Amino acid sequence: MPFFAKYLNKYLSYKAIFLVDLIMSAIVSVGVLLLINFFASSDYYSGPFALWWLGGSVIISSLMMYVFRTFNIIIRHMTIADIRKYIVTILLSDVLLGLLLAVCCTFNVTIAFALLVKSLLTAFLVLGMRFALIELYEILKARAVDAKSSKRLLIYNTSDKSAATAIRLKNSKRYDFMGFISHNDSDRNIQIAGYPVFVYQTEEDFVSIVNRHSISAILFVSEKDVREESSGIIKHCTKHNLNTLIQPPVDEFTGRQVLQKPIRPVQIEDLLARPEIKISLDRIRNYFEGKVVMVTGAAGSIGSELCRQLAKFGVKKLVLFDDAETPMHNFRLELDSHFPDLDFAPVVGSVRHENRLDYVFRTWKPQVVFHAAAYKHVPLMEENPCEAVFSNVYGTRLVADKCVQYGVEMMVMISTDKAVNPTNVMGCSKRLAEIYVQSLGLAISEGEVEGNTKFVTTRFGNVLGSNGSVIPRFREQISHGGPVTVTHPEITRYFMTIPEACRLVMEAATMSTGNQIFVFDMGDPVKIVDLAKRMIEQAGLKEGEDIQIEFTGLRPGEKLYEEVLADTESSDPTEHDKIRIARVREYSYKEAAQEIDELTRLSKAAQINDLVKLMKKIVPEFKSANSRFAEFDTQS
Predict the structure, then answer these.
(1) What gap in Å lies between CA 446 and CA 158, rounded to an integer?
(2) Strands 492-493 and 526-527
């Protein structure tokens, strides 16, 4: 079969198809004419009538085939609509032939019956030839499949989306599609698109189906199915070393370009993800469309996803601002590829450099600014508090002041749940940034500071798969054979997908009236040790046997659980059920500005102890956990 394999994906020439169809039509015409003469026992249907019959049949058939372009239909992709087109072409050809005979010769019951027989025989031959070619193609394809380079797979569920995915996989070289699998009894003994549906009820049933048909992978066509089956069929697959794959949804970018994402393995992020959060797409589009938008920290996990989503809402220009050169370069290439019509400006610079910020605001005059630039790693910032304050507090102040100076409509600051009752320098630095931004907004609204900028703060917890987060680290440790390190057996964290977080950020921005801190519903917390165990299982390994989990102890500044102030006692509801407004203490802008001046001076002078003491004075709820700075708690 290797000889035929290289021809399987080639198309037959449309000229050849046209000629074959015309020859078959002519053969049928001759055969039916002979039948008329035989059964009619008359010479009337020979001579001039035969010429009109045969000549008219060939000319009219070729004309109708050309009009309906039946020779352009790819045979192996033929659909019901195509079959209807063939039948209409044949019937219309014979109706026109009948009219021609009535005008030029004669027309009677015998001729009408002959035309009907001609139509049926032509349709039988034309469609029969195509069905035979399709069957031959399937036989050759099945024999040509290289078992070493393709995966035999079943699609989970029998939905319309499953059937559509099956049709797309029909001619795949990488996957050998064998059918569908379901645990719904009503699917028993049925076929979809010509493929069987295998029904299982128990793990033993599942294993039997897999072994009988040499299945190596199960494909899911929706994230919802993955979440619902995390303890069902996915668990069976993990136990019996089957690959679990997912067909991500089509990603619509600009309305002009649609990207079909490739099939990929199911990841831990898919299992932890929650049902998609609905947002007001029209309101978000109406707000951002046609505006110049700037994103600081644009090459980071949150910043880059904000840019991807903003690109879909018709912004006039997107200004990317980040001091990480290589990530910015890579992100620029991505935007060039996926959003060719997007007008964007990649700018390398730091929020700590006032002159560079001023150049950007002066040059592009952004109308909306998303401030995502920040240092975020807790243990590292506990060891480098001066840099945490200089970037997260002073940098935020510079961005906010430039927004006011250049008349920006809105600044949206990305904060963190670690700013709530902070136990580390990083969390406190973000709380200090919140304080300055909110106090500046209040000062504007009260006429103390001249300006029109609205300030919005959004708080959320950990995002799945962000740079340096726990999931990539566990994945790397597992790939190296372990051990997987967890700081404490009881430590928990909230998780949210990056796209979900960014959608809520934009939703909060459009519903804000200014000077508000929005907190998001983060769902239920996840025990990190359970996450580690699940990732080990997903890798086909056994915890305690193939790979070990080691507890290393809480790191400096780390606490067992995070808070987001999303409960009804400390926050107020909004029109969106996943977004609430935090009730927080308000600060005087004048005092906040003076205190941040002093914090900036101390951070530049690297006076660490005095800096942390002042942070604890300004934010009295800042109590250090597992940190050398805990000694300053009683003093503050």
Answers:
(1) 60
(2) antiparallel
**Predicted confidence (pLDDT) per residue in 173-182, tens digit:** 677 788 888 8
Class of residue 499 by CB neighbours under 10 A (exposed 0-12, middle 13-18, buried 19+) = middle
**Residue for token pair 């769902």:** 523
Residue type, 50: A
Burial (0-12, 13-18, 19+ Cβ within 10 Å), 544: exposed
Cβ proximity of 604 and 390 under 8 Å: yes
What values do phi and psi take at 69, rounded to 5? 55, 40
pLDDT digits (tens, 9 = 90+) for 359-387: 999 999 999 999 999 998 888 999 999 99
**Looking at this protein, which amino acid is placed at residue 439?**
S
3-state secondary structure of 610: helix
Q: How far apart are CA 262 and CA 260, in angstroms?
A: 6
Dihedral sign (CA 161, 167, 170, 172): negative
Map residue 583 onto helix, strand or coil: coil
Cβ atoms of residues 55 and 30 within 8 Å: no
Q: Which residues pair with 197 in a beta bridge?
A: 180
The burial of 18, by beta-carbon neighbours within 10 Å (0-12 exposed, 13-18 middle, 19 or more buried), is given as middle
pTM: 0.67
Q: What is the DSSP code (8-state) at residue 313?
A: T
Q: Which of 308, 337, 6 is nearest to 173 (CA)?
A: 6
- CB contact at 8 A, 436 and 397: yes
Tokens of 368: 């909306």
